[in-house]
Give the backbone structure.
Amino acid sequence: MTGPSGAPVVGAPAPVHDWWPPSGVAPRGTLILLPGRGEHPLVYERFGRRLAADGYVVRALGTAPDDPAEEVLARAADAAGPDPAVPVVLVGSDTGALQALGTAASADLRLPVEGIIVAGAAPTGDAAGAPTESGTSAWDDELAARTACPAHRRRLSEDADFERGRLTGPVPAGLLHDARPGCPALILHGEADPVTPVDQARDLAARLPRATLAVVHDGLHDVLNDASHRTTAAVIVLWLERLRADPGLSPLLTVERGAAL
């Protein structure tokens, strides 16, 4: 945000980036996305464009991992607006996933959260962040932990606004509490995530009352921007369509023959 002179306003919130459905397509829901360590809203441009093409409004916030919980809730409510397309779903990656869990658990009338998507949540245990390999640079190690997608690796490497090295930093203590929102949750996690053990995602799914767990084979930490980003986005759309049809998540389609997707 800038003032009349074009200079940044001290204390102003980081920008929101929006992706909207094509002209003539009625919005099918509102996704409010919270980025993770080192990230900013435009890191999710590919994700935003893809979900918007399927009819969903995507609003990525410029929140930071150590933002107070009340501030995150207020900014999410402001992004949703007074009359959002429903369902309103929080989407979070890394520390943003932990913020989304806490926000959904404490949401009030300002933010009618009807679902939550937890993607590659930051570690809440003793995991120490991206591993290091002998003979490689710290940046190469971080990329190897984040994503196997060549296009996304290139984007991060060329992104002057992306903060390198944050993935090895500590998770803010305020995000380590055991938040258990009662709304339906889709938990997405890479099976080979070297930052957060996949068992953390399994434990979270077991604790939440209406959770769907999707584990991406060979998937790394940035599950929304990993090599299987198209499959992950498709799973999200399928889950969103189930949520739209029935908050109880009754199946819309059952594959009776053929291999697993």
Notes: The first helix runs from residue 45 to 53. The radius of gyration is 18 Å. Residues 66 and 222 are 19 Å apart (CA to CA).
